[in-house]
Every structure is written in structure tokens, then in C-alpha cells.
Amino acid sequence: MNKYTVQVASEQHFDLAESICHEMAESAKARGTGIAKRTPEYLQEKMSEGKAIIATDDVDGSFVGFCYIETWQHGKFVANSGLIVKPSYRQYGVAKAVKMKAFELSRSRYPDAKIIGITTSLAVMKINSDLGYEPTTFAELPVDDNFWKGCESCVNFDILTRTERKICLCTGMIYDPENPDKKTTEEKDEKWLFLKNIADFTRLKKFKEKLLLPFTKKAK
């Protein structure tokens, strides 16, 4: 594996937008879970605004990892969305490095905002937890329709609609700057211990899917 550089994306990375979008789509197919689709133009817009983080290969300059920032309700909420890492670079800490950079950028540009996220990924949940995020209900997430519009291209969107945005296969997470996590590393690790056990997490996911099965059947 070549070395890589993590930085705030800019216009010089426009030519990588298409390959990033392609990798997002392929990743969603491989996992069999939903993901909000984004166009190359949308990612380029984020790059030009200085609201995206990219990791690039130091040798050939190719895309290695990516994430972007979105805001809602006049900057009250911020999300680090669209995290993706090229398969050949997974398990090398790229996702964590990109997320940490995006988190730092969010705190710098929007110091008073609550940083939120919704995900089905165990790895992302653990990274978020290490950054100080806490699990939260969907009721604590933005009421802005534009926030939920990002879920429309997800295969599970019908479940979200039928439950009136109360529950879906994703887990909601939030970092509140007014109530920063004061727990010790040991306490945080204990709280998230069940997520470290893949078998336990799989059972939890299956339970959630079973709970939402009636909504899935109605969608077919």
C-alpha cells in the first residue's frame, strides 16, 4: 500500500469526483444496505466550498478516501457525510483519518453546531464514538426536510417514511459541543463493547430488521 495524504479537498480534485461516486455506489451494492446517492457535480460543489475531505495516493494522486460536510437549520446541525474508502486501502486507518479531519473542519467552521450522523456501519459507529458522538433518537436530528431528502435514494427510504422518520435501519448519532463527552476511554469502550463483538452487532441488526419487517413487506 502506498502512503496517502489527507487534506481539505479543492478544485484540483474535481477530476476525482466521478470515481468517488462510483465507489460509493459499488460499496452500497456490496454491503446490501442503503446509501444516499450523490452526483459528481454535488461533490465538486462541496470541494469548491472547502467542505470536503479527501485522501489521495502519494504516488499517483488517485482517490483513496473521501467525506464531505453538510449543514442544516442555519448551521445548527452539521454532518460529515458520504464517508467512503477505496477497498484496497481499507483496514489501514484511512476512514478514521478522514473522519477525524472532517470532524476538525466541522468544529472549526461551525463551533456551536451539533455534529450528527446516521449510519448502518459498525466501523463508522466506532469511529464516531471515539470522537465523542453518542447514540441518539431520530427525534433529536434535524426537522429540516432537506436533511431527510438525502435519504430518498436509499433502498430503505420507504421504511423511514412509513415510520414517520422515527426509526430505520440506520443508527442516529450526535456530538453536542455544549455537553462534550467527559467519559474516560475505559468508560466509552465499555459502553460500546457490544459493537466490538461482530456477532452481537449482527444479532442487533437482525433484530432491528425483524422489527421493521412489516414496513418492508408493505413496500414491496
UniProtKB/TrEMBL annotation:
GO molecular function, one term: acyltransferase activity, transferring groups other than amino-acyl groups
A Pfam family this chain is assigned to: Acetyltransf_1
Keyword Transferase appears in the UniProt entry: yes
Domain of life of the organism encoding this protein: Bacteria
Residue intervals of the N-acetyltransferase domain: 37-109
Residue ranges that the Swiss-Prot or TrEMBL entry lists as coiled coil: none
Keyword Membrane: no
Keywords: Transferase
Protein name per UniProt: GNAT family N-acetyltransferase
